[in-house]
Design brief:
It contains four helices and no strands. The chain has 164 residues and is mostly helical. Helix 1 runs parallel beside helix 3, helix 2 packs parallel to helix 4 and helix 3 packs antiparallel against helix 4.
Length: 164
């Protein structure tokens, strides 16, 4: 005749816990944390200060240089300037990734982006407008990725080829 599938195992007598002192030896208390130390103020290297000042100067001059290029060479001057501006953005990004960008450099860069888009340039080649806008957007994304901007020029592509 089959027996129980799960037989009971007898381990012997019950344990006696009657005179046992529970929690009589608590673990040692952790050492108190050291008080917060005040770090010394950040003093940038002289080269970093000069670098930021040079970037601020270049960013302040950027709208004027763009307009001068436009007046001298027309739309192709804007295209060439965009290439130079792209290099400036790359160097600004390197400065930021190294942790050496000052707040006033960032503020000037954002202000320059606004000024560039406010310039009254009569650009007929939509690809140049898009390239300029993409460079400004690239710099803005790096400096302030959370913000949304709506001051970009609207491309005006001819929709009907017979009308132009």
């Amino acid at each position: 005749m089959p027996t129980n599938a799960n037989p009971t195992i007898d381990l012997g007598d019950e344990w006696e816990y009657e005179n046992f002192n529970w929690f009589s030896n608590p673990p040692p208390k952790p050492e108190p944390a050291a008080p917060d130390t005040i770090s010394p103020p950040y003093i940038p290297m002289p080269g970093v200060v000069e670098q930021n000042e040079a970037f601020i100067y270049a960013l302040q001059a950027a709208p004027n240089v763009l307009y001068a290029q436009y007046k001298q060479y027309g739309q192709l001057g804007v295209l060439g300037w965009c290439s130079e501006f792209s290099e400036l953005i790359d160097h600004l990004k390197n400065l930021g990734f190294e942790g050496n960008m000052f707040v006033n450099t960032r503020t000037q860069a954002l202000a320059t982006c606004q000024e560039l888009l406010k310039l009254k340039l009569d650009l007929k080649m939509q690809i140049i407008i898009m390239y300029l806008s993409s460079q400004v957007a690239r710099l803005r994304r790096f400096l302030d990725g959370e913000a949304e901007y709506d001051d970009y020029p609207t491309p005006a592509f001819p929709l009907d080829m017979r009308s132009s």
